[in-house]
Amino acid sequence: MTTMITTQHRLTLVALAALILTSLTLLSVPAHAIGLDYESRSISHAIRQEPPDLNTTTSTDTTSSMVLDHVMEGLLAYDRDNNLIGGVAERWELRDDGATFWIRKGAKWSDGSQITAHDFVFAWRKVLEPANASEYAFILFPILNAQAINEGKMPSHQLGVRAVDDYTLEVTLFQPCPYFLGLTAFSVLFPVKESFYQSRGERFAADAEDMLYSGPYIITEWVHGASIKMEKNPHYWRKDEIWLERIDIPYITEDANARMNLYRDNNIALADELVAESLQGALQERMQIKTFLDGAVFFIEFNFRDQHVTRNHNLRKAIQSVFNTDDLVYKVLGNPGSYPAYSLYPRWIKGVNDLYKREYPPIKPQLNAERGRQYLEAARKELGVDRIPPLTLLADDSPNGQKTAEYLQTLLKQNLDLDIRVDVQIFKQRLAKMTAGQFDMVVSGWGPDYDDLLTYGDLFLSHNLNNRGRYKSDEYDRWVGVAQSSLDTRERMDAFNELQKIMFRDVVIVPLYERGKIFVQHPRLKGVVRRAVGGDPNFNFATIEPPAGTAR
Amino acid sequence: MNNPVTFSSTDFEPLQRGDQADVLVRPSLSYWQDAWRRLKRNRRAICSLYLIVGLLVFSFVLPLVADFDPVSQDLTQISQGPSLGRKSLVVNTTPWQGIYADHAAHTGPLSPVTGLQLYGEAHTESVRLAWQPVPGAVGYRVFRHLLRPSGPTDLGLPLGETEQLNQVFFEDRLKLEPSKYYYSVQAYSAGGDVSDYATLRVTPRHAIGVGSAVQRGLISSQNPETFVGEEVELKRHLLGTDYLGRDMLARLIYGGQTSLYIGIVAPLLFVIIGVIYGGLAGYLGGRVDEVMMRFADFVIALPFLLFMILFRVAMGIGPGESGITPMLIALVVLSWPATARLVRGQVLQLREQPFVEAAQLMGGSSHYLIWRHMLPNVMGVVLVSLTFSIPTAIFTEAFLSFIGMGVAPPTPSWGANCNEGVKSFLSHPHELLFPALLISITVLAFNLLGDGLRDALDAKMKG
Amino acid sequence: MIEFILKRLLSGVITIWFIATATFVGMHMVPGDPLANAKAMKPEIRRNIEARYGLDKPVWHQYGIFMGNMLKGDFGISFTQKNRHVNDIIREHFPVSALLGVMALVIATAGGIVWGALTAVYRDRWPDGVIMFLVVIAVSVPSFVFAMLGQLGILAFNDLVGASLLPVAGWGTFSHMLVPALVLGLGTMAYLTRLMRSSMLEVTSADYIRTARAKGVSPLRIFFKHQLRNAILPVITVLGPSIAAITTGGFVVELVFAIPGLGRYFVQAVQQLDYTVIMGTTVFYGAFLVVMVLVVDILYGFIDPRIRVAKSAA
Which chains have 3 or more CB–CB distances shorter than 8 Å to chain C? Predict the structure, then answer.
């Protein structure tokens, strides 16, 4: 018996020793990423996904765009207040029929060679070549012959872009394009050096060494799916104005809670796109919480195709009169930084002199369940049915999409006794179903492509492919025409207001909310720029304050 | 030593029909009776059995007896913890016109915000704040904190900014809870300068709007305005509510219907298919057996979770559909070969057994052989494997629903409940805790019952 | 033996073909549009992209191309990561999953043997009770709950020691792997503990143990030399299937701990309908499992002559 106990004791000792050993190994492990460091001028950041495509001629997504905006620069660029300033171009001139850009002598690629006008000509032709299959090729369509080249009807050298010499780029426009300068700051129009592109072939931009950089930073290490390291570009023409030496992205995670935990543990300097549920903890730990509107506006879109009861105006009116945006935003979604929307136009859009919403306030629908039921009664009579058939409500499987759909289902049942069949799909299936018209209502959203109200206003143009509900109104089309062609700001803004009114009157959409991103940021990290158009967030102008007690 | 036995010719005559060949002293127990008796002695297994019955009653009988509503949303009680009832103040929810003051131009540093005060009573429908205008300010930012702010970078949640130049008020409606808040207001100038902030401590009361109160039948619809200022008893949510104010208990009950249905029916189906397939293969033997089992091997080789996800997406869940059937089909299609293999192995073994050979020699038909000898002898093993398949199926459903590849919302299931709950785990742990607990209890019960059954049936689980 | 191996190899190849075909069929049943993007595409641009991925050809033609490329070991280019080959994706992310899996398996095996042996030694006393209770919990609680708790545990641990010793998420060093591997291996560890326990108890009552004891061999020697050694054997035989379960079961852990493994990639690919990545990953995993089973089978054939005889007879 005594011997048995010894065995037990020894075993226990062995187990204990194992435990201690493991803990010791643990303690000897070196520290990992640090949120920010004043001495080495470096910060760490976490992004949501691996950048899918850093090839500027084909890239379309926001994550790639965030990285590209640090390592690339186009003819023009944005400053810290999101105003356009000179980038690779030092001077420019925009005319009705074209534009000229004078390239800065001394603007260099990361291999030390001069960036020339030819690099732009090559890049833009590449974007339009059918074999390159660029989704954003249409952005270049204001340029002469661009569309024909993209459709394969013309060789790419006939594009209306010409390098007069190494330092002068001449663009011929096919129609006036008041927002063309803004486009040149967009990644699709960034330069590509031909010799480098040819030397990399298929692998162009597939890895850090397969890229040539024109921007403030270069990628020094890219471990796919895991991390990206960026360091200041020694050849960047404006490198003295860039304070931050290193931007590390040691974490790639979709999980907002994981990002929050990383921030909590001081592994990253900014935790982006957090969920409201995690904020209570953030408040308890006195983190600096910030929000910003990312430009996306969400709304319910109706199907106007034949055979869909949502064609009926009174039915849509009925839904509009019972829908409570405030309840959805403040009680159901509860995301600070998101605002109830009453129009397709975001609240930060500029009008003639002031904010657009102050100059042209949107109409707020009057909540009235009684009126709603009257509209519904009228709809029932017009449609000649005893009961409105069940309506299909399409949404994607994002938390907000799902919550909105579930909220609406019960709301419409309780107030109008409408039966709603919720159809939750993954994002791409939602889009496919929208395109195919397999819905009555859809929870949808829209974000800006470029910095002009037109990117919102032309959405329900009858031949716009993004108008997936096939709303068609000559009146609407006419006002879009005014907004597109007019060069008078007041006239354009008036036209946009007419569009806003039509959308309300015809109930083309029921606006839901303007999405705000919630993030926490290290109190000593300053100068981070958030943008609704282009790569976001941007650290090009970021600085770190010295820790308390350090002399500057 | 030698006691020679002597036989007479009568000894070799057949017995008379009806004679008792042998008499059993104790009552005869069939295999199943014996197994049951052994199972009953296993206290853990019996407890599990009661637990399973309890869970089935919870999910399938309870909603028949009492009215549980998993759908209706109570926006005044979102994400509430378990409680025995809550009182609430009836309030008017008419929009607030707000407070405006003349905008005064001023250059130079902004003076601090002063006169921050509450307008009317603070309650969970809205908290109304107003303050004195700051000369030179073009707008004000409003923050809300759970703790007293310690400095300008620690003001809490940014609630928003004032919209008009002359606006000196703010109405907060964002997920208000009846707890202590610190509101701070900060002015900013056109140049981007910010002023010192002012802070106000507010504790809102729980409140419900007149309209919602009428809709919920808490007050009469005749002159509802007269009830403003009175307290009413809100609907009780024993286990709290979820993110849409739906009753957690009801969600769990109906979620259980989905989870238990998939968890029990899918294994039942694939075990039946497996028994038929495996039994046939084993019984027929030879070339047929080889081909059949090769096919089963193919299906087993498919990576399970990957194909579950693939099938889920491929089958496409249409509008208003729950997604239960696609998941059932996918589970059955991918899971039957395990049982088939097991049964085939058993049948192959049984075929060699003396009693089967004896029955065959005595001219038993194959029908007889299958029903009398094969099936009953295979049943034990099958039953045990069925019991062990149920936890796996429940886990699979939970896992898939958890990553959003399971049943389609708004269909409740325990896995889907977990998926919803995990997002708010830190602030409202009950939304994850309860469904996770139910999954765990169910899995535990079936595992323990399986253990008990295996011991009782003495089934060797070796395919 | 050679014949046995050849036979198994052939059936392995056919199995992989079956998996590939099943994946292809499944993939093409998926509703939705892999090229869909938030912004609608002009038809001419769409045509360009379809041509790039061969989507403009009839399905049987696509199947032919897919099979042909697969024979060459080429899974094509990702739909969402436009300049990355699926092969690169697998090459870069599978080792992560595999490493995590191996770590988990090591933890699970070591833990399973130690705890199992402990329960047997302390049979029916409180350590046995506590460990078996924990085992029951470990098999009954869904993995995502453990993953969540694991992450919270790390935070609590870091708070406790006052420094961030354990990373909350991410990948790279040994400390990154520890908690995820533990969470991943928990289920298997519980299973192995049970197995080890029953196996130990069986061995304890074996004749040779009694004989050894009667001969006066020291209890420690009996424990290590006879009991543990013999009890471990059945545990080792189930390791093969466990490898498969663990390497493909890492989705949740990879998602929660932001580990760039292939499992997380697969879930993302499904959500984005990345055809080529889905097909490549599925076929690769299927083939991997087939090969693992094959290797384990052949190894067993070498180790245990009875299996070899039985298999070649069948």
Answer: A, B
HEC readout, A63-114? HHHHHHHHHCCCCEEECCCCCEEECCEEEEEECCCEEEEEECCCCECCCCCE
Class level of CATH domain A76-198: alpha beta
Asked if B412 and B453 sit in the same domain, the reply is yes
Pair (B145, B222) in one structural domain: yes
Quick check: B244 contacting C, CB < 8 Å?
Answer: no
In percent, the amount of chain A with pLDDT more than 70 equals 93
Residue limits of CATH 3.10.105.10 in chain A: 293-515
Determine, yes or no, domain membership for C221.
yes
Which residues 353-412 of B have a C-beta within 8 angstroms of C?
391, 395, 398-399, 402-403, 405
Q: What is the pLDDT of residues A329-340, one digit of tens each?
A: 998 888 888 999
Domain end, chosen from B204, B233, B262, is at B233
pLDDT exceeds cutoff 60 at A143: yes
In a domain? residue B147 = yes
A450-469 pLDDT, tens digit each: 778 888 998 998 888 889 99
What is the separation, in whole angstroms, between the first and last Cα of chain B?
51
Which pLDDT score, from 0 to 100, does residue C270 have? 83
Alpha helices in A486-536 (DSSP H): 489-505
Q: Which chains touch B (3 or more CB pairs under 8 A)?
A: A, C
Task: List CB contacts (< 8 A) between C243 and chain B.
Answer: none
* Prediction pTM value: 0.83
Q: For the domain A9-48+217-288+523-544, what is the CATH code?
A: 3.40.190.10
Cα–Cα distance, C313 to A6 (Å, whole number):
49
Tens digit of pLDDT for each residue in A229-271? Answer: 999 999 999 999 999 999 999 888 888 888 888 898 888 999 9
Instruction: Pick the more confident residue, A10 or A510.
Output: A510
Number of domains in chain C: 2
| Least confidently predicted of A42-51, B215-224, B251-260 | B215-224
Exposed/middle/buried for C107, CB within 10 Å: 0-12, 13-18, 19+?
buried
From residue A94, give the alpha-carbon distance in Å to each of A8, A75, A101, A207: 87, 13, 9, 36
pLDDT at B184: 94
- B211, B285: one domain: no
- The number of residues in chain A equals 552
Cβ A255–C169 below 8 Å, yes or no? Answer: yes
Cis upstream peptide for A52 (omega within 30°): no
Question: Would you mind telling me the total number of residues written for chain B in this entry?
Answer: 463
Based on the domain organization, do B198 and B266 belong to the same domain?
no
Spatial strand order of the sheet with B127-130 comes to B117-118, B127-130, B169-172
> CA–CA separation, A448 vs A456, rounded Å?
7
Chain A contacts in chain B segment 19-48 (CB below 8 A): none
Boundary residue ending a domain (B210, B233, B256): B233
Q: What is the CATH number of the domain that holds B175?
A: 2.60.40.10
**pLDDT for position B19:** 57
d(C-alpha C224, C-alpha C226), whole Å: 6
Window 74-133 of B: residues touching A by CB (8 A cutoff) are 75, 78
CATH, residue C132 = 1.10.3720.10
Confidence of residue A28 (pLDDT cuts 50, 70, 90): very low
For A42-78, write each residue's pLDDT tens digit: 999 999 888 888 999 988 888 899 999 999 999 999 9
**What does DSSP assign to residue A175?**
S
Closest Cα to residue C77, out of A211, A204, B302?
A204
Residue B174 in contact with partner chain A when CB distance is under 8 A: yes
Domain carrying residue C302 = 1-72+274-314
Predicted complex ipTM exceeds 0.85: no
| B182 and B94 fall within a common domain | yes
Contacts of C163 in chain A (CB under 8 A): 31
